[in-house]
Amino acid sequence: NPLNGATFVLAAHEIVQLPFDQGAEVAFAGRSNAGKSSALNALTGHNALARTSKTPGRTQLMVVFDLPRLKTEAAEPLDCRLVDLPGYGYAKVPEAMRKHWRGEIDAYLKMRRSLRGIVLIVDIRHELKEFDATMLQFCADTQLPCHVLLTKADKISRSQAQKALDAMRKHFRDNNVPGTAQVFSSSAKTGVEEARARVMVLLAT
Length: 205
Ligand code: GTP
Ligand code: MG
What we know:
This protein is an alpha/beta fold. The chain has one domain (7-203): P-loop containing nucleotide triphosphate hydrolases (Rossmann fold). The chain has six helices and seven strands. It has helices at residues 36-44, 68-73, 95-111, 130-142, 158-175, 192-203; strands spanning 7-12, 24-30, 62-66, 80-84, 115-123, 146-151, 179-183. It has a seven-stranded mixed sheet with strand order 1-3-4-2-5-6-7, with helices on both faces. Helix 5 (158-175) links the parallel strand 6 and strand 7 (179-183). The model has no long low-confidence stretch (mean pLDDT 89). Belongs to the TRAFAC class TrmE-Era-EngA-EngB-Septin-like GTPase superfamily. EngB GTPase family. Its cofactor is Mg(2+).
């Protein structure tokens, strides 16, 4: 697993606190409680690298992880990072904080030069919510590559999962989103290898 050995770098409240903007970075985005931190843990092979929680809105920081292995094994050394973005859309987060993160995530997406792509985490049981549609539209507008993990697939049948995947792919076609999508489950470890390969492709973009 090339993503193994990921290490915590820092948790930032503002984009100015992020590591120097060089190398390659992939950001994990999604609504609150969608399963971003769990997906990060599954991909890196750590049980508790990113903090997961039953309480939505727990990750109210941008949490940065370094991938030192990719750096040492590459022909040309390159800093590679994964970023866990704060969950979006949780009602109990105070309005001021939601506003703050709307601004920070927006600025991060627009200005972060090392950002190579987005992994968007979507609960496979839910239809496309406003935050997800906005994120995908941003990717379409800027042609930033995006990979969608339709997660918590262990909660539904395989045919329902396939339906959700077809609907997401149709959304990509209809909206010119430069995206790929797959069925995923952090609990059942479904689609973990495929997702790792996608992250590697994004980092190398
Ligand atoms: P915030 O940081 O609060 O925005 O949430 P998050 O998107 O990081 O979600 P997190 O990974 O903390 O998971 C939220 C809840 O969903 C936890 O109770 C997890 O155990 C559960 N969960 C995450 N992934 C899966 C999955 O694949 N299957 C099932 N059944 N539960 C999952
Ligand atoms: Mg989280």
